Task: inverse folding
């Protein structure tokens, strides 16, 4: 990787990726659930920017709308509804499980990284078409070749809707 | 963007996945554990999109060539849909448990113990 010229694109993408990694660590380490959620929002927005840098504009916008717009709002609603703020902040006890988990994470990162990343060492030119991520291309594929999975997902979302209402009702 | 090695995106995806795994193992708040699961799903999404953009691995996929070029993006869309359904049901379950008992420490939930 040392013979790779450092291009401005690499600096921009590397900076955004570094920020996203810091935000991911913040999700795990913050004791307060709301701070974790805010870190996760930051991480998702930075990921959307990375999707834009991969020319996947449609999915970047979907990422912002679905994840930061819908899912994280749901998380924040539940955190505030359960009132997990200062009074009953779960005290994270120092137990040996923590060190074992961090060791496991380091081993996982090292193992997969050392096996996977060298295989793609010289690859730095995108091969796909530049407009492969636009709404036009995605819509055509989604409604032609992937029509049956699309319908299955619609059934899944319907079942999820019914299930969440059933769980939320006190008395049916 | 040209000139960005594939390994940058893959490394970020691997790091986010590892952070999610460690978070699921060490945190005791079920909502934060859910957030860590979302982190893992997003790491996988990033990896799918990276491979879809770079097309580094040429797999002989039968059928429509255009459709197989779009397979990574389609997978990301379906992962997002499944994640949305999963969060709706999962947070409903957490709310139901919290209504049953005031403590939602995940290490002290042993209702399923035989």
Result:
């Amino acid at each position: 990787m040392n013979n790779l010229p450092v291009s401005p694109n690499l600096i921009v993408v590397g900076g955004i990726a570094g920020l996203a990694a810091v935000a991911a660590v913040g999700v795990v380490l913050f004791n307060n659930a709301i701070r974790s959620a805010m870190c996760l929002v930051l991480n998702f927005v930075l990921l959307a920017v990375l999707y834009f840098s991969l020319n996947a504009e449609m999915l970047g916008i979907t990422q912002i709308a679905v994840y930061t717009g819908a899912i994280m709002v749901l998380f924040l609603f539940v955190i505030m509804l359960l009132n997990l703020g200062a009074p009953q902040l779960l005290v994270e006890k120092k137990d040996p499980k923590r060190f074992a988990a961090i060791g496991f994470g380091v081993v996982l990162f090292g193992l997969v990284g050392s096996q996977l990343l060298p295989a793609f060492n010289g690859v730095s030119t995108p091969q796909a078409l530049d407009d492969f991520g636009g709404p036009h291309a995605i819509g055509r594929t989604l409604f032609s070749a992937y029509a049956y999975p699309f319908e299955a997902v619609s059934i899944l979302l319907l079942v999820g809707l019914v299930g969440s209402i059933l769980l939320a009702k006190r008395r049916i | 963007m040209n000139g960005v090695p594939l390994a940058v995106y893959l490394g970020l995806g691997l790091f986010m996945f590892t952070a999610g795994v460690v978070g699921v193992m060490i945190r005791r708040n079920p909502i934060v554990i859910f957030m860590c699961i979302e982190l893992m799903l997003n790491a996988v999404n990033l990896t799918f999109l990276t491979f879809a953009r770079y097309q580094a691995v040429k797999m002989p996929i039968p059928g429509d060539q255009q459709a197989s070029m779009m397979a990574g993006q389609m997978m990301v869309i379906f992962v997002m849909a499944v994640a949305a359904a999963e969060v709706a049901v999962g947070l409903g379950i957490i709310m139901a448990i919290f209504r049953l008992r005031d403590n939602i420490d995940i290490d002290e939930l042993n209702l399923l113990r035989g």
Chain A has two domains: 1-85, 134-172. The CA atoms of residues 1 and 118 of chain A lie 9 Å apart. Chain A touches chain B through 89 residues (CB under 8 Å). The helical segments of chain A are 8-29, 33-53, 57-82, 96-116, 135-144, 147-168.
